[in-house]
Amino acid sequence: MPGFADYLSWRGDLSFAQDPFGPVDGLPLGTLAYHHFAQYADPPLGVGVPFHQVAEQILAQPPERLRVFASGKRDAKLLEQTAASPRYRDQLLWASQEVLDVGQQVQFAAITLQLDYGAAVVFRGTDNTLVGWKEDFNLGFLDTIPGQWLARDYLEQTAAYLRGPLWVCGHSKGGNLAVFAASQVSLAVQNRIVAVYNQDGPGFSRSVVEQPGYQAILPKIETFVPQFSVFGMLLEHEEPYLVVKSRGMGMMQHDPYAWEIQGNDFIRLKQVSNASRVIDSAMRRWLTGLTSRQREEFVDGLYELLAASKARTLEELANPKKIMAIWRQYTQKDKQKRKQMGLILRRLARSAAWAVREQGKQNRKKLPEG
Fold first, then answer.
1. Domain(s) of CATH 3.40.50: residues in the chain
2. Least packed by Cβ within 10 Å: which of 4, 31, 169, 308?
3. Is 268 in a helix, a strand, or coil?
4. Which residues touch 225 (CB under 8 Å, ≥6 apart)?
5. pLDDT (tens digit per residue) in 143-177
6. Can you name the CATH fold of 4-272?
7. Nearest-CA neighbor of 40 among 24, 52, 30?
């Protein structure tokens, strides 16, 4: 079935003035946001560079340097196709920003594309750096993370230099940043936002979703998840989610390249899969059974083990020497800390078993008599 590459071939000749920005447009931009645009186009606020010019500079690099997450060839093809499309080619790229701070545990990037009418502000999701994943895990025990406030500041500052309506979007953690930024900016900026497209991004703590700013932007949030969603179901969501058909297997349904499109809209399903509901129930039960302090200690302990390998990315962790370094760090850990980590993991296993049983009961209730 067609994905957004086919959408660009079919719809790419129409300008945004002819066919306004929509949720499907947000998906390729959310995917392209993983490129290091800031290394090639970092104009000051108020100055834009044609998108195709930046794309040409990036495409001149070796494929393995194109992006921090996923296949170089696949990403190169998408970037090339987008840059050649009349829909995107001459739009101005503004204010590319990228921050990677191991000490502050921040992995953040954003781009803004000025459209024929308004602008799209796009936030990057989690890349393949360890600090990027640690930042995600921090959402399990912190109400907010530094990257979310960077997103708020970026949206507020960029909006000051742009006229017209705004669309805010992002894939994975980028979707979380998009929603948070839109909920925290001034009322003047909120009023200009047409929609916030959250592409399988996690939710928030209860304290965030209860804030007036979040409630004000809530009617404009559109959250899309594949039928087997894990990331997009985490934490609290006030908005209803829309289920997109994905041809990926299991966790790979999170991959935006696998999302299916028909015409100018996603192919939608009625609900997420049983497996997705089981994982969501298990994670909620597990997290609810842990104190905030226990969550923090577990996440910090796990990150400490991985950081001991000196690996900077997930790929580097596969090196046997890195694995041995992690094992040595684990064996040197305080016995009580090892015991506590083991206890928390066993709780996760019990929560998973409970969720499977509960889903089985619900499925049996739906069966017709006889």
1. 4-272
2. 308
3. strand
4. 200, 232, 233, 241, 242, 243, 244, 272
5. 899 999 999 999 999 999 888 999 999 999 999 99
6. Rossmann fold (3.40.50)
7. 52
